[in-house]
Amino acid sequence: MNWELLALSPPGWGGVLLKGLVTSLEVAAGGFAVGQVIGIFGAAGKLYGGPVIKDLLEIYTTVVRAIPELVLIVLLYYAGTASLNNLMGALGFSSVDISGMLAGIIVIGLVQGAYSTEVLRGAILAIPHGQIEAARAYGMPPAMVMRRITLPAMLPHAIPGLANLWLVTTKDTALLAVVGFTELTLATRQAAGVTHEYFLFFSAAGVLYLAVTLVSNVLLAILERRVSRGTVRRKA
Amino acid sequence: MSDNSRLDDLAELETPPPLPRLSALLRPHRLVIIAVAVALLVLMAVKMRWDWLPEYAGMLVTGLWVTVLLLIASTVLGLLMAIPLGLAQASGPVYLAWPARVFCTIIRGTPLLLQLWLLYYGLGSLFPGIPGIRQSFIWPYLREAWPYGLLALTLSYAGYEGEVMRGAFAGVPNGELEAAKAYGMGRFTMLRRIWLPRALHRALPTLAGETVVQLKSTPLVATITVVDLYSVVGDIRQSTYLTYEPLLFLAFLYLCLTGILVSIFRYYEKKIPTRGR
């Protein structure tokens, strides 16, 4: 195998791969953040919303969780941008050009939002009810109960599930390669296609993804220890 | 004691499953949602083109068949691999436990798409260099895409399930294994009659969830030219120049497949007694 092809400067493709990795991480972080925002509102809606909101959220989580991510990404990426432009056209605006990055973040975020809704809903349900009642007895309005009690108290229950979701998100970004967005996987394929060193480059990309997972695992373990300070640990 | 358990069985048989009342299901706001859904469907039927559907029905059935076959083959083979992987990690000697752990970490730490491309393009480009393989009987298969798709899906399922089985094997109460030992069971008999059934029982709900994930991973094989349900719909999109209709129909088909899979697992979970878990 020709290891020099992994060099960072132009005869080698290392720089291209690292740039792809950075793009992947950007999309993953953005998508995860969007997913968490959807998840918080989704979980709150599912638990405290009216019957219509509950049913609509149920439809959202069920449908998104039942359809393959690849199909959702292709559907939202192509049909979503086409619909948006149709809508803009119907309203008399000129068509908008959505960057691949933004579309990727929104698509990944919508998918992760459905999973996150379920994770956070379960975590909120796991909070001892007395804590919320105590907050209410202090006269806290609902929004303040959410901000000061519910969200911090659910974190120890939610972090393992959210950690899983983050790891899934970093790997879901690879699916954007299928719609032609140049992240790590597609960059790797381009490098491999030009040099015909398929095995070398795909292995290198695998090592990069693995490194992301392993580093994330360490950071998530630290985070988990931090948010569950003062809670009684069950013996594993 | 035995009388009691018989009474429990009777009680279980005689309690009818709680059926939700229709009036409870169809509360006013649900009617609104259903009406909106029906209106959307009518709008789709009127505004969208569905005349391609009969023409491509045969292709769709073929694709569906390939997807289902891939799912069944990869889950069965993957589970067969996952059992030794889990066992090695739960109680194997170091020289078995470590490779198993490394394998699971690699599979779980890299995207399936990358694994697929590594196997298909990477391994595929290595094969011609190996002398003698062109004369072998497997060469015709190696030139097709589906063995690589099946291999990648199987390895992926084995990697994720290996972790699940590790937890399930480790979670079987030690007393049961000690009791088996006290009965003079050999290690293999103990595994076959006590350990494995108990572990599989514990793992079943997770296995059900992972199998749905596996179904949702199958469309990735389309990227290495396996003609599955997803790639058939891709062909339809190219030849009909339609954007929404085939993709929406594809999403609907996967929704049905997931629903069927989930209800099969529900049925079996109900059949397996949960007492004494």
From TrEMBL, chain A:
Keywords linked to the UniProt accession: Cell inner membrane, Cell membrane, Membrane, Transmembrane, Transmembrane helix, Transport
Which Gene3D superfamilies is this protein grouped with?
Answer: MetI-like (1.10.3720.10)
Provide the Gene Ontology terms for cellular component. Answer: ATP-binding cassette (ABC) transporter complex
Highest taxon, organism lineage: Bacteria
Please verify whether the record's keywords include Endoplasmic reticulum.
no
Q: Where in the cell is it found?
A: Cell inner membrane; Cell membrane
KW Membrane (keyword) present? yes
The protein's GO terms of the molecular function aspect are: transmembrane transporter activity
Query: Residues in domain ABC transmembrane type-1?
Result: 21-220
Q: Which InterPro entries match?
A: AA_ABC_transptr_permease_3TM, ABC_transp_permease_HisMQ, MetI-like, MetI-like_sf
A Pfam short name: BPD_transp_1
Transmembrane segment boundaries: 20-44, 56-78, 90-111, 149-168, 198-223
**How does this chain sit within the bilayer?**
Multi-pass membrane protein
Q: Which family does it belong to?
A: Belongs to the binding-protein-dependent transport system permease family. HisMQ subfamily.
Q: This chain belongs to which protein, by name?
A: ABC transporter permease
What organism does the record attribute this protein to? Answer: Martelella endophytica
TrEMBL record, chain B:
Give the GO cellular component terms, alphabetically.
ATP-binding cassette (ABC) transporter complex
Identify the domain of life. Bacteria
Q: Where does the record place the ABC transmembrane type-1 domain?
A: 64-265
Which InterPro entries does the entry mention? AA_ABC_transptr_permease_3TM, ArtM/GltK/GlnP/TcyL/YhdX-like, MetI-like, MetI-like_sf
Q: Please provide the Gene Ontology terms (biological process) for this protein.
A: amino acid transport
Among the GO molecular function terms of this UniProt record, one is: transmembrane transporter activity
Where's it found, cell-wise?
Answer: Cell inner membrane; Cell membrane
Q: What Pfam family does this protein match (any one)?
A: BPD_transp_1
Keywords annotated in UniProt: Cell inner membrane, Cell membrane, Membrane, Transmembrane, Transmembrane helix, Transport
Q: State if Transmembrane helix is listed as a keyword.
A: yes
Q: What is its main location?
A: membrane
As for membrane topology, the entry says: Multi-pass membrane protein
Membrane spanning residue stretches: 31-50, 56-83, 247-268
Q: Tell me its family.
A: Belongs to the binding-protein-dependent transport system permease family. HisMQ subfamily.
What is the name listed in the Swiss-Prot or TrEMBL entry for this protein? ABC transporter permease
